[in-house]
# Entry
Amino acid sequence: MWKSAHPYISNLIAYEPGKPVEELAREMGLAPEKILKLASNENPLGPSPKAVEAMRMALERAHFYPDGGGYFLREAIAEKHGLRRENVILGNGSNEIIELIGHAFLKPGDEIITAQYAFAVYTLMAQLFGAKTVKVPGVNYSHDLNAMLEAITPRTREIFIANPNNPTGTLVHQDQIDAFMKQVPDHVLVIFDEAYHEFPDQPVDVVRYVRENKNTVILRTFSKAQGLANLRIGYGLAPEPLAEILQKTRQPFNANGIAQAGALAALEDPEHIRATREITQRGRNYLQEQFATFGWEIVPSHANFVLTRTGDGDQTFRALLQRGIIVRSMRSYELPEWIRVSVGTPDQNERLIAELKKLYE
# Structure
């Protein structure tokens, strides 16, 4: 039976997440609490205390199915963005929204366009539906929107713009996006992946394109700034006709009730977001300054991680593993000389730099 699977599924290379703490603990014989993970861009402060309390209360109703329509969470998200509940789609992480878009709009032979250095899941989801990914070389590790426009063909169905971009941390500014959107043809859907929306000093506004009924889907997540990565909860914003199509492609109860409760409470705790932004900005500046002292190239980041060229990213990754520190090797992103480091607490950042000094000074 396995031999009859679609060729584009059989040849698919699964997504490689950051190395789990538990796996390294088993390999190294270390206690998990001794391991420092700076690989997956998680919130070092953890979730909002309000979210934790809401989730504890929701556990008492774990024997009930969740609200399949996510009424209260979708209402709160819509109010935050000045939209209607009908504009909001919940997902098992924002990754699921990418899959829902594929179900709705991709077929074998179609094309999607991404930046050269882009989140790997875009390509994986395209391959899942037999579509081709066109990777457009960027400028200074960022998106080249003019080149992406030139890459559009009659087969193009989707363009992905991650802003800030993962794995590079670059930001495409408002005037660039506005000029780009005026030129995108009607047969192309533009997906703005804003998983790191909370971190730039001056984030762009693409929600306006939802209000203007453009062919646009915006992806957001509670995994990063809200610190709820373990819950797998995210959402999409889209014009109502688009959102209605995407709702038809999702599984019933795709957003579990405990995740909905935690996400709703997280929306009501702006102080936690403020504290997250502050620790991220300080830590990001510190890491960039320290990496520069090694003579390493960095890509100035607008997210909660820093991409830096160490010369041999795999070697740096392995050497740090031996010291109980997990960062992200970038070979799978066609950046073998680089590592990506998530911003941690001050103590965590200092521990990383101290170990790097032992290796490189």
